[in-house]
Amino acid sequence: MKTKIRAVKLRVNSAAGPAGATIAFKSGLNILRASNSRGKTQSLQAVVYALGLESMFGPSAGTSLGSALTTQIAYGEPERAIAVNSSWCAVELENETGIITAQRAVKNSRVQPNLVRVWHGPAITGDSNELRHEEFFVRESGAAKNPRGFHRFLAAYLSWQLPAIPKYTGGEALLYPEIIFPFLYADQRAWGSAGPRPVTQYQLREPTRRAAEFLLGFIGPETAAERYRLEDEIKKLRSEWGSKLAAIEATATAAGGRVVSLPDLPVGARSRSGSRPTRPTATSEARLQILVGEEWRSDEEFLQKLQEAAAPTEPSQVVADVGQDLIRERLTEQQKELTRLSTTAKIVEQNLTLNEKQVMILDSRISALADEKIKNQDIKTLLRLGASSGVLELDDAECPTCHQPLGNVEAGQVGPVLDVDATISLLSSQVRTFEEMRRQAQEAATESRASYRAVQRAVDICRTEIRALQEDLVVPEDFPSSAVIAKRVAAEVRLSEFNRVRDAIDDLLVEMQDLANSIFEMRIKLSDLPNVTPQEDDRRRDMLQRVVREQLTDFGFSSYGANLVSIDQETLRPEREGLNLDTDASASDVVRTKIAYLNGIREVANSLGTQHPGFLMLDEPRQHELDEDHFRATLRRLARCSDVGDQVVATSAASVSALSAMLGPAKANVIDLGSQRLIQPMSGDDPMDF
Hints:
By secondary structure, the chain is an alpha+beta fold. The chain has a domain at 282-381 and 406-512: Orthogonal Bundle (Helix Hairpins), CATH 1.10.287. 47% of the residues lie in helices and 16% in strands. It is built from 17 helices and 20 strands. The chain has helices at 40-50, 67-70, 150-157, 177-180, 207-216, 220-254, 299-310, 319-322, 324-384, 411-414, 420-474, 482-528, 535-555, 581-584, 587-608, 628-639, 656-663, and strands spanning 4-14, 17-24, 28-33, 72-75, 80-95, 98-107, 115-119, 133-137, 164-166, 172-174, 185-186, 257-260, 287-292, 295-298, 565-567, 574-576, 615-618, 647-652, 669-672, 680-681. Strands 1, 2, 4, 5, 6, 7, 8 and 20 form an eight-stranded antiparallel beta sheet that branches. A five-stranded parallel beta sheet has the order 11-17-18-3-19, with helices on both faces. Helix 13 crosses helix 15 and helix 16 (628-639) packs across helix 17. It is elongated. The two termini are 31 Å apart. The mean pLDDT is 86.
């Protein structure tokens, strides 16, 4: 989505009164003309600063805005230096989403510079009194991810789907806007290199290449991201496989057995799986074995032995030897015991269900409190940076505990309101409390589960004994007694337990088969991902190369033939094969190449409809004695941006008449700042003042 810079505004307050400057831009080519040291660079730097992107100049980069906004301002005739009390700058942007104005304090005793105020509308060219504003933070942890992070807001406004890029230290991080912006702004100090200014402090792998790929809409980065996603998913599934394997081993061990023919990891789960797998691991090949004496027996063989032991056998004692009265007495006792055990089982089962539900509820509560804590930490950051109390508005908030909307709650009705620090402390305390409650609930659930299994086992034994005693009452007196039945009972209980073990292991094996199938499918997808640059990416690189060479020819590149300059396949930078273009070409040709490269990316991105915002800023592109004829060709090429609705802002010290002659029929908005300093005295307060 194309974005246009509508205006930039600088404001200074000092003992001599307010001062400032406002510059409005149009679509197409804008040439900001002024004598040297009169504020041209400061105007473009204000755009960078207002958007919180000054770290593109380095991890410890300051404002780069000059003394007029930071220390002292020159006033009057003759000029005298007056100390700056406070200052700020703002930039107004427009795209299909709407108009926003981003404002940052440069110097302010109350508001810190990492606070960004965003006006929802044209605060510079319109009436800011009628606009709603929000406050965000930059250059703080979470600025690109947290809800109150300005660069998260900016990326959403620009419709940028920022990709995740692998880091040298492991893991991934977003392709931050500071890495992309050197492709949109060439500052005066960057003209010594044909490529964009590198931003390396984030420890990302090949950040400059990734930014070029992003702006040109390469498919390759999507492939790399998909590869990382699949490998990460395989890693998670591998962990699940290990957990279920441990559960199977524990279940088998408890039954006095083991499971064989089940691998530690399924096919395709290892990081370097080698050749393409042909079929997934089959968990149906796994076998349960039971140790009998000193020999491992198959589960089928052991099951058969249990079934034989549980079957009726010839008794050594008959019913007549025990007596009917004693059998009835034992039967009554066992029936009472069964009733008691069944009641206990229901109670334990209810407790288990309640404990498991409690764990789920507490998980949800802890998650909600953690989210609320992050929101309040963002608010704390904003307040520390000097945000207004508006960040505490409750219109869109809800209670993290009961989830009721808070928009209509009046503080006076509910008593004293906690400040942010107290709220964070309270939320942290609540998280700890609920985590402890969850731990206790989980322990209770585990204990209830074990108790339920034990009670169920006792119920099974009791039912078996009742069945045996009932048989004693109806069979002839010469039939086996309950003593013999008791032996059979033990075998039946063992048989019942063993069947449960087999069922549990079978269920786990089914789940592991699903994992094995998923890992196999993902490994196949990984194998099918291209290991070379997709043809479409090559085509786009070739398009850029043609456009760069075409411009270099027009711009008078003369160190060697323009056709020897190529776009390197590995770095996506302009290079001459085998040589460093920055040192091999003349200084003026390095400038020509940089203009051709950055403008070429803009032109190619426009033709392809990528995420390039469609604007480019060039600070003093006529560097190193770029002759007039070739600068004329440069300006006329840049002016063609108006044909596609793009915007280029360039600064120049040339006179208006000279610029007019060089532009010829090309359309451009020449903004003449004259020979006076950019920031001039003003009257009255500004409604945008912090």
